[in-house]
Amino acid sequence: MLDQSLPETFTLANAVLGRVRWLLDEAVLAVVRSCCIAGELDSQRLDEYQPASYEIAFASAELLAAETSCAPQANATELDARLSLAFAAEAIGSVLSRLDTLYVDLGIPPTDLHAQMQSIDLVRLRHVAARSDALVDLGECVAQADDIARIAKPEDVAMAQDAFRRFAEEVVAPLAERIHREDETIPNEILDGMRAMGAFGLSIPAAYGGSASSTGDDTQMMVAVTEVLAQASLAAAGSLITRPEILSRALLSGGTDEQKRAWLPPIASGETLCAIAITEPDFGSDVAALTLKGTRVEGGWRLDGAKTWCTFAGMANLLMVVTRTDPDKRSGHRGLSIMLVEKPSFDAHAFEYVQPEGGRLDGRAIPTIGYRGMHSFDLHFENYFVPDTHVLGGEAGLGRGFYYTMAGMTGGRMQTAARATGVMRAALDAAIRYAADRKVFGAPLSEFPLTRLKIARMAARYAACRKLTYAIAARLERGGSQMEASLVKLIACRSAESVTREALQIHGGMGYAEESAVSRYFVDARVLSIFEGAEETLALKVIARALYDDAFARLTSKREAQHAG
């Protein structure tokens, strides 16, 4: 139990978090000062600091999760409050450890850092919230609780989540193991049910047949629905609505009126199934370097080249293909456009389609250790014809493909964070059930202190990631920073790996058997840090760069103010 009141402990935690935030800001400023050349941030110089940038990004994600976890929340239960404090204590220790290495690498005097690492406030916080006997007690409370990590949601979001939770439990969950173990394609029972519930139109405004607001920025709704679908099965349901969201956001951002009227209604109804073709064999997350070539011909374009990791490309009858329409590679991301490519739907692990005009598209599903059901494909385009009407944005959209793609990726990253929380919850629940049923050395596994401690830490991490995901979703609806979507994806996806790993470990040998659902959670979770932006790309090119740009702007403003004074 706690040795002091919850309000006192949260006050203490927030005070420590504030000092750790200042220490992290000092590391960011140190990199900026080292990489400022001729009054500008030098990108090549920043690349020399990749190890530091990677650590800074993860420290920022952990710290934001801890800060959000310790923010006031209406009607929070005592159990959820204790989980928040347990995570904050763990995250502070992790961030300080990262900073200890960073300060050495960056040549920052460690006096303030070491003072904080040895501060009486930090000792008190750890004693109250993170000592072993406190975590053991917390784990027992988690195992006995009806629910944890409660989030206050708008009424329509809560109602939709409840409806999709019932669908996930009644339709998706009974099929999940068979789909995974037999490497099946998602069956019609799931697709038809999703269509009937309007799942594919959640990010499409009502004017185009969906159920979203006029802007389509209903991020909390997407997060809530994705979470419960992923809890039942990441591959068979949790990822189904990501592709239509990315494409519909791109259409809403840059599509012509005719394109919106033509494509958004059938996407919303689920009549048109979508896939997103961005990644190429040699470039991965480096979107600006993509090379699949579009050559202008009479009435349209011919596509030649390869794409890879195109999820759901077999079943999809509409592909969003990022294409290089400017042959000059020096144009980088400014030479990219989006082609809306139609094809027949194929319920198979490989397909071949030859157009009447002679163009050809071949696809082959990539064998994977997890994330089975949707299947990710290698695609090869040969002289494949796309009419001018299918260039996103028309003539004005040429060269704008990178920006339209990024308009959709923020939502995709938030959905990936929600998928991570869904998988974490499934793994945590499985671990609690198994620990209660499994007897070792004459007693249920759940009665052993180490088991309870593990459950407490798993639950604290899950709860913190869930709270952060919903907080950033609400912030994005109010026009918040898109970089924060990358932060929440970074920590939620890495956390899903650790939580599912511990859940499998609690299962022992049975966890390694395919017949245990926890083995599926484990291999499915591993993909989360890779797709929708690999964690290295997010850490270096999105998160760290945004932090450096912000710090550089503050430094410049301060210097200008001093000069003016």
Concise description?
The protein is of the alpha+beta class.
CATH topology of the domain at 6-130: Butyryl-CoA Dehydrogenase, subunit A, domain 3
Name the shape in a single word: globular
Rg over alpha carbons = 24 Å
Strand order of the largest sheet: 4-5-10-9-8
Which sequence of SSEs, written as H and E, runs from N to C?
A: HEEHHHHHHHHHHHHEEEEEEEEHEEHHHH
Biggest beta sheet summary: 5 strands, antiparallel
Structural class call reads: alpha+beta
The fraction of residues assigned to DSSP E strands is 5-15%
The CATH class name of the domain at 6-130 reads Mainly Alpha
Please identify, by name, the CATH architecture of the domain at 6-130: Up-down Bundle
Number of beta strands: 12
Number of helices: 18
Describe it.
With 565 residues, this protein is of the alpha+beta class. The protein is 58% helix and 12% strand. The strands form 4 sheets. A 5-stranded antiparallel beta sheet has the order 4-5-10-9-8, with no helix packed on it. Strands 3-6-7 form a 3-stranded mixed beta sheet. A two-stranded antiparallel sheet has the order 1-2.
How is the secondary structure organized here?
Layout: H1 6-35, E1 36-37, E2 40-41, H2 43-47, H3 50-69, H4 78-106, H5 111-117, H6 120-129, H7 132-144, H8 155-181, H9 188-196, H10 219-232, H11 234-238, H12 242-254, H13 257-269, E3 274-277, E4 293-297, E5 300-311, E6 318-324, E7 336-342, E8 350-354, E9 360-365, E10 376-387, H14 401-437, E11 439-440, E12 443-444, H15 449-477, H16 483-507, H17 517-525, H18 535-564
Parallel strand pairs: 3-6
Antiparallel strand pairs: 1-2, 4-5, 5-10, 6-7, 8-9, 9-10, 11-12
Helix pairs in contact: 1-3, 1-4, 1-6, 1-18, 3-4, 3-15, 3-16, 3-18, 4-6, 4-7, 4-15, 7-15, 8-10, 10-14, 10-15, 12-13, 12-14, 14-15, 14-16, 14-17, 15-16, 16-17, 16-18
